[in-house]
Amino acid sequence: MVRSVLEEMRIRSLGVIDDAVVELSPGFTAVTGETGAGKTMVVTSLGLLLGGRADPALVRIGAKSAVVEGRIAVPADAPAVVRAEEAGAELDDGALLISRTVSAEGRSRAHLGGRSVPVGLLGELADDLVAVHGQTDQQGLLKPARQRQALDRYAGDAVSVPLEKYAAAYRRLRGVAAELDELTTRARERAQEADLLRFGLDEIAAVEPRAGEDVELAAEAERLGHAEALASAAAAGHAALAGNPEDPEGVDAGLLVGGAQRALDAVRSHDPALAALAERLGEIGILLADVAGELAGYADDLDADPLRLAAVEERRAALTQLTRKYGASVDAVLAWSEESAARLTELDGDDDRIGELTAERDALSSELAGLAQALTDARTEAAERFAAAVTQELASLAMPHARVTIAIRQTEVAEDADGIEVGGRPVAYTATGVDEVELLLAPHPGAPPRPIAKGASGGELSRVMLAVEVVFAGSDPVPTYLFDEVDAGVGGKAAVEVGRRLAKLARSAQVVVVTHLPQVAAFADRQLLVEKTNDGSVTRSGVQALEGEDRVRELSRMLAGQEDSETARAHAEELLAAARAD
């Protein structure tokens, strides 16, 4: 099976490292060096490539920026490749090139396959490429929440499948509960709103306004209020145009225009221009007669009924009461009425909706309780296997009598918290279930199991956490693991066993270990030395692969602090021989 391999990293201007290339083995690579030489910068560099936080303090003094570049060989169908190609990245001869730059001012840039990408994308890819098991992670695994996560990942589909079902039901329940809470806690407000809407709709229905009615009544009221003046003006206009029957000697506009037309008609044959004027006078006469007739009809039809005016004003007053409350015009009032009727229908349906949601909540709570129990059962079964595997690893790490167990219990719900019935008692539930997971250690027969943070000495704790990480890593699909001095506090025969266990893990995955133990380094397929030199002006750190005599000298230094000690050299050669023969 083809798997991803971190082939090399180039580090420039990062901490004590000026410019170094770290070439890694597909199997087990050990990174060694004196304290302060820069071994931690190897871990830090990989963290930057994986989207870790950029600290400008890491930039080498005098440099403008620090740069870390990595080359990871990946299968073409790997999830990381698919995600990278979606971002526009391209593979370089089957390898993914990653670059991270951190400026002294704190700015950070990331490149993936030749394309500039958000730093967060590197973090997404890291989940599929590299798992870092460092001292910080070791401390994190002391927390029950991290132990639950580790157990779930170890269990695989046995837990992930019921957990997915549980999480979906949990999300539905939370949504239903939130809507139900909103309806019930705002019931009084919504009832008050419904009463106001109902009152307004009843008030509008009692008046029964018509669209545009306020405009029509305003015009009618204006006409009725000035009926006498309008009738007098119409009569005067009619008399001026058509004459007054009671004054035979009076002169009117129609008579004058008619006389003018007759005068022109007598001579119109002599000049076409004058004939045209005569025609226009004829048209004026006709128009005057029409207007006079309409004025006579207007005056006859004009209703000066004071009762009608009073009725109009009363109707207008009723409409004004509506427009003051519900809209600037009758049309706006009608629009408010339509919207409010729809809203009232919604509010009136709250009681039914509350009943429906209550029933749905109860059904989901029952379903969630069953799923929670199934999830607990799956974790319990996986916990037994996980604990047995860790106990077996401890036996290989010079702790043959230690026994690891995993306690799974449910936290009872507080009085003011949400809860469901599991096993006949109310327990608190979260998005990940109702279980609390805790790793317990009995270091020797007769000792009571205690949480590993309290039940193990420093050296025992390191070995327990290494065993946990090795077992956990063995079940993890990530192909590359970086262990940062997780062998701290371990020595002697136990250290040899640590190296042996890491070498075993390297048969199925790439393993990179930053270590100070020669017993561990001896088992590595490739050993890298991080060492400082001083050129008189700046301190530089280089990384070199050790072979043959150079590796023996470094192991001798790690054993006795003296590269040329014959006893240390003999011990180093013995370690290497034993590791090769294992």
TrEMBL record:
Tell me the domain of life.
Bacteria
Coiled-coil regions listed in the entry: 354-381
- The answer to whether UniProt assigns keyword DNA damage to this entry is yes
The record's keywords, sorted A to Z, are: ATP-binding, Coiled coil, DNA damage, DNA repair, Nucleotide-binding
Any single Pfam family the record assigns to this protein:
SMC_N
* RecF/RecN/SMC N-terminal domain boundaries: 18-536
SUPFAM superfamilies found in the cross-reference section: P-loop containing nucleoside triphosphate hydrolases
What InterPro entries is this protein classified in? DNA_recomb/repair_RecN, P-loop_NTPase, RecF/RecN/SMC_N
Protein role = May be involved in recombinational repair of damaged DNA.
User: What family, per the record?
Assistant: Belongs to the RecN family.
Q: Which protein are we looking at?
A: DNA repair protein RecN
What does the organism's lineage look like at the top? Bacteria, Bacillati, Actinomycetota, Actinomycetes, Kitasatosporales
